[in-house]
UniProtKB/TrEMBL annotation:
Domain of life of the native organism: Eukaryota
Bilayer topology annotation: Lipid-anchor; GPI-anchor
Signal sequence, start to end: 1-20
Protein name: glucan endo-1,3-beta-D-glucosidase
Domain X8: from-to ranges: 362-447
Catalytic activity, as annotated: Hydrolysis of (1->3)-beta-D-glucosidic linkages in (1->3)-beta-D-glucans
Organism of this sequence: Arachis hypogaea
GO cellular component: a single term: plasmodesma
InterPro entries named in the record: GH, Glyco_hydro_17, Glyco_hydro_17_plant, X8
Pfam families: Glyco_hydro_17, X8
Alphabetical GO biological process terms: carbohydrate metabolic process; defense response
EC number per UniProt: 3.2.1.39
GO molecular function: glucan endo-1,3-beta-D-glucosidase activity
Matches recorded under PANTHER family: GLUCAN ENDO-1,3-BETA-GLUCOSIDASE BG1-RELATED-RELATED
Length: 504
């Protein structure tokens, strides 16, 4: 029996190696629940600037597909859940959908896959019975257009349908869903497609009641005695993501499917949350997404399949301020609606993907838990005797919000730190400041040391707003800064015009 299991596992590895016929990639999901959604041409300009070559749309928006034409960006489009019932009940409806949303745009727009619904089994269980029909009808329409080899068809699943996910070797799919999952896996296997899975270590961590350590969820290095060990396989797991991916492979193996690769269609970490979401922070979001990107692109693989990386789409490109639910739901994005980074990823060797590396950058920030009165005194000194340019923190300026002493002192501290050449003693401020590698820039407030930012945009830095009157000199009108802002604005307008011409 043991020999049989070993042979089965070896066979699975060999098949998956063949199935992994392309280099692993990092993509980004593009949600649209924004009160000020950027124009598709602006979205594409951001994708190009960040060298994002793989995107997933939650629909098949025509303007977006046109904007993506001739960019080379690989695009995954989606049949929205609200259209699923009609498509799952009518072959002709599916054919019309493919004609309108795929054939009309391909190959100018490089559509590589179609998501049929999203988390249907958990979000729309009443439609589960027609899900496989919808997959088949969409695929048949692709076959009729001779596009079935170029465009894969699958459906993203929530990882919550995998039960007993640790140890991974004991994982299995919720058996009540087998009547849908088995024919779905048959379809994926027969068409050479892949299992789409949404993995959120943030939720696993939050719901574990302290069982899952934060470092384990964030891909942080663990000492050997802190690694999670699968008692059946003796494989060591150093992060939740790998454990969930392997759990999916073992769950498929449990149903005798050994040659269906996994693609993670959603994964990320929120940068802000409510009072009951203390670990939804910029630092944690930066750590998770930076480590995830490196983990995938380094082709680390998982303990079950080392060296076979799982391509992953980060959730998501923009913060979606119109999303219902807790505060964290609105704060999964890498960028705000203006295209400014929520944080600067810690990346090296990522082939310029999301090219805002901070590996050689440091910033001076307010120390967590510092006395507010001491922070205010240090802020007053920096904007007064310290001669820091603090006008960006005045009301109505880019760094006024958030209007609190922590944010404002962080801006002033960092400005002084860079002004003084980042010497160790320039980031102390009587013990209330500390050096950080995380860029505190946010929204349109760009800090002095933010990578790729010209020093002339200093006054547009996201900085703390001044509540003190001790720094009148810092808030004085600066004609040189004004001239530079106008020059920057003109360059931006010219850039958009050129970008528009190129996209046309």
């Amino acid at each position: 029996m043991a020999v049989h299991s070993l042979l089965l596992l070896l066979f699975a590895v060999s098949v998956l190696v063949v199935a992994a016929d392309e280099e692993p990639f990092i993509g980004v999901n593009i949600g649209t629940d924004l009160s000020d959604m950027p124009h598709p041409t602006q979205v594409v300009a951001l994708l190009k600037a960040q060298q994002i070559r793989h995107v997933r749309l939650y629909d098949a928006d025509q303007a977006m597909l046109v904007a993506l034409a001739k960019t080379g960006i690989q695009v995954v489009i989606t049949v929205p859940n609200e259209e699923l019932l009609a498509i799952g009940q009518s072959n002709s409806t599916a054919a019309n959908w493919v004609s309108h949303n795929v054939v009309a745009h391909y190959p100018a727009t490089n559509i590589t896959a179609i998501c049929v619904g999203s988390e249907v089994l958990t979000a729309l269980p009443n439609a589960a019975k027609i899900l496989v029909n919808a997959l088949k009808y969409i695929h048949s329409a692709l076959v009729a257009s001779n596009l079935d080899r170029q465009i894969k068809v699958s459906t993203p699943l929530s990882s919550s349908i995998i039960l007993d996910s640790f140890p991974p070797s004991q994982a299995f799919f919720n058996k009540s869903l087998n009547s849908v999952l088995v024919p779905m896996l048959d379809f994926l296997q027969s068409t050479g497609s892949y299992l789409m899975l949404n993995i959120y270590p943030y939720y696993d961590y939050m719901q574990s009641n302290g069982v899952i350590p934060l470092d384990y969820a964030l891909f942080k290095p663990l000492p050997p005695n802190k690694e999670a060990v699968d008692s059946n396989t003796l494989l060591h797991y150093t992060n939740v993501f790998d454990a969930m991916v392997d759990a999916a492979y073992f769950a498929m193996l449990f149903l005798n499917y050994t040659n269906i690769p996994v693609v993670v269609t959603e994964s990320g970490w929120p940068s802000k949350g409510g009072s009951n979401e203390p670990d939804a922070t910029i630092d944690n979001a930066n750590t998770y997404n930076s480590n995830l990107i490196k983990h995938v692109l380094n082709q680390t693989g998982t303990p079950k399949y080392p060296g076979i990386a799982v391509s992953t789409y980060i959730y998501e490109l923009y913060n979606e301020d119109m999303k219902p639910g807790p505060l964290s739901e609105k704060n999964w994005g890498l960028f705000d609606a203006n295209g400014a980074p929520i944080y600067i990823l810690h990346l090296t060797g990522s082939d310029a993907l999301l090219a805002n590396d901070t590996s050689n950058q440091t910033f001076c920030i307010a120390k967590e838990g510092a006395d507010p009165k001491m922070l205010q005194a240090a802020l007053d000194w920096a904007c007064g005797p310290g001669k820091v340019e603090c006008s960006a923190m005045r009301q109505g300026q880019p760094c006024y919000e958030p209007d609190n002493v922590i944010a404002h002192s962080t801006y002033a501290f960092d400005s002084y730190y860079h002004k003084m050449g980042k010497t160790p003693d320039s980031c102390d401020f009587n013990g209330v400041a500390t050096v950080s590698t995380t860029d505190p820039s946010h929204g349109s407030c760009i800090f002095p040391g933010s990578l790729g930012r010209n020093a002339t945009t200093f006054t547009n830095v996201t900085a703390p707003s001044m509540n003190s009157t001790a720094s009148d000199s810092s808030s004085a009108y600066n004609p040189q800064s004004s001239e530079l802002r106008i020059r920057s604005l003109l360059l931006m307008v010219i850039g958009f015009l050129i970008c528009g011409v190129v996209l046309l």
